[in-house]
C-alpha cells in the first residue's frame, strides 16, 4: 500500500546513533494483525507502560507517582513529541544489573519520544544515577526506533530496534526482554482489532479518550490533515 515515489527521506530526523558501534543493538520484526496507526498510537501512549508491561518493567508500587507526573507535548506539521521526567524511581532489576548498579537503585529518567507521520517512531531515554561510586559511570542511554507500514487496513509490518550503552554482557537476555515486551503490545493490539472487527456495524465498542491521550489526539489530527491533502 502507498506510493513509494512519495516517500521523502528528508522528512526523517537524524538517527546516526542507530549505527554507533559502542552501543548494544537489539532488533526484530513482527507481522501484526491490526492497523499500523494503532501501533503508532500504542507507542505514543506513555501511560500504557504502567499497566501493560508490569512487572518487572515498572514497579506497581510506584504507579501513583508515575501517573501524576506531567508530560510535555509538542505538535508540529508532521510530528508529535512527548517529554517525560521521572525523578527518583527504581530501576528494573535487569537494568540495574546490566548497568553495574545495585538492585533497587533509584535513578532519574528522562524520556523524549517522537512519532513522525505516517509510520515512524523514535524514543530516547537517559538514566542518571545521582549517587555514583567514585569513577563509575553515572549516566546511561537507551534509544529506539520503530517503522510501520500497512499490508491492509487491519494488518501491518512492524520493524523495531533498540540500542543501549549497557548490557553488552547479556545481549540474549535483553533481546528476549524486548521481544517479550513488544509481544505484549502485539497481543493487546490484535485483541482490540479483533473486538472491533467482530462487533456489528451498529454496535461498535465504545471509544473513550482521557487526558493521557493528548499526544494521540495530536497524531490523529496530523493523519486527518494528511488524508485531506491526499483527497484534494
Automatic annotation (TrEMBL):
<protein>
    <recommendedName>
        <fullName>Vanillate O-demethylase oxygenase-like C-terminal catalytic domain-containing protein</fullName>
    </recommendedName>
</protein>
<feature type="domain" description="Vanillate O-demethylase oxygenase-like C-terminal catalytic">
    <location>
        <begin position="33"/>
        <end position="228"/>
    </location>
</feature>
<dbReference type="GO" id="GO:0016491">
    <property type="term" value="F:oxidoreductase activity"/>
</dbReference>
<keyword id="KW-0560">Oxidoreductase</keyword>
<dbReference type="Pfam" id="PF19112">
    <property type="entry name" value="VanA_C"/>
</dbReference>
<dbReference type="InterPro" id="IPR044043">
    <property type="entry name" value="VanA_C_cat"/>
</dbReference>
